[in-house]
Design brief:
The structure is a homodimer of 191-residue chains. Chain A is mainly alpha-helical. In chain A, 64% of the residues lie in helices and 5% in strands. The first copy, chain A, is built from 8 helices and 3 strands, in the order αβααββααααα. Chain A has a 3-stranded antiparallel β-sheet. In chain A, helix 2 crosses helix 3. The first copy, chain A, starts with a helix and ends with a helix. At the A-B interface, helix 1, helix 4, helix 5, helix 6 and helix 7 of A face helix 1, helix 4, helix 5, helix 6 and helix 7 of B. The structure holds a DNA duplex (28 and 28 nucleotides). Chains A, B: It holds the Pfam family PadR. Chains A, B: InterPro entries: Tscrpt_reg_PadR_C, Tscrpt_reg_PadR_N, WH-like_DNA-bd_sf, WH_DNA-bd_sf. Chains A, B: It comes from Nocardiopsis changdeensis.
DNA sequence: AATCTCATGTAACAGGTTACATGATTAC
DNA sequence: GTAATCATGTAACCTGTTACATGAGATT
């Protein structure tokens, strides 16, 4: 039950159409929650049905025409309640550690270049976050809302730092001692 | 497409019945991928159908009787191929950062105790991983497979370290300057 | 034999993914 | 006016979640 609340948050920050929301889910919001345009349109329909948002009056609201949505008081109330809700942490759903564990059983095969690739992707993401921090908060946060936005950004920084640290060590370890013949190591592990 | 491969890995490590797998998904494997018993039985059926695993011959294979599965060569081959597959990192699906972002819009409300709770859960998980490390690898890894298993464990440690670091700072920041009246801060943000 | 627990399921639904469809606008 | 693009959707499918059902063995 997070996508509707992500959408409510985004619409409170700025009323938008489905396509605009989709673009925002590829940038800022998308760093913490992803969604395709099909999900977004489906969810906008549900939220409107439930009376939490409404489409702004438009002259010709047909297919192919932009339709802007804004949050109704009921939607804001629902979001407020969600913030206060108690909800346990979810286990990670990134398959990479799982693939490494599988590699421990069937052999590392060709996993090393994939680890390198992921390490570099996470490094790039980390650098991006650091640029945001320097660009948007050069003198620290100036309002209560900015303080919280910066905290969220720092969350991304801490997570990416964790990935980079882990993958850095994994690449180092696996390039050091495992590069003999992958087939041989696979056979040994599989026996 | 990760659950079937998680199951293949688990079954290669040790042939098991559905209920045994379910218990293992509450411990070791569950630290990196979660699954309910319903998911596991459904997936075991598919994997057997696909010829990747088979039920060990049993005298009375009826309902309510344990049914042990083992991986067939085709299953091992599928797992090996999955390890080598190229697959992009997934964006996190933990709603907590999202809730903090929402709090920036509708006010922090009662989120602080929830942040404390999560921080403590992640701290406990981190300590648990460190105990595993001390207990299972007191002199470092002794085989290639142990080296990889330890790497996976270190992944968990690095991720939990990231959470603890972030949540520690978030709690500190929000207890310092935000504790006036939540309602007032909510109104200010919402304006 | 009634009840409890364990193991194996079924069913219904929500959320996420991929492929495809259609109306409106813009570029040529 | 035709083609490309943009915006809004529909449909089918897969994964994950929750509630419930049933057979077998153990407990009383």
């Amino acid at each position: 039950m997070s996508l509707p609340h992500a959408i409510l948050t985004a619409l409170l920050e700025k009323p938008s159409s489905g396509s605009e929301l989709t673009r925002r889910f590829d940038r800022s919001i998308g760093y913490f929650w992803s969604a395709t345009h099909q999900q977004i349109y489906r969810e906008l329909g549900k939220l409107e049905q439930a009376g939490l948002i409404r489409a702004l009056p438009s002259p010709v609201p047909t297919r192919g025409q932009k339709k802007e949505y804004e949050v109704l008081p009921e939607g804001r109330e629902e979001l407020r309640a969600w913030v206060d809700r108690r909800e346990d942490p979810k286990v990670s759903r990134d398959p990479l550690p799982l693939r490494l564990r599988a590699a421990g059983v069937v052999g590392v095969g060709d996993l090393l270049p994939e680890l390198v690739r992921h390490r570099d992707l996470h490094r790039a993401r980390l650098e991006e976050y650091r640029r945001f921090e320097r660009r948007d908060y050069p003198n620290g946060p100036r309002t209560e809302q900015e303080r919280i936005q910066l905290l969220v950004l720092r969350g991304g920084i801490d997570m990416e730092t964790g990935w980079v640290s882990w993958l850095g060590r994994a690449v180092e370890e696996l390039s050091a001692a495992a590069p003999a013949t992958p087939a041989a190591s696979a056979d040994r592990d599989g026996a």
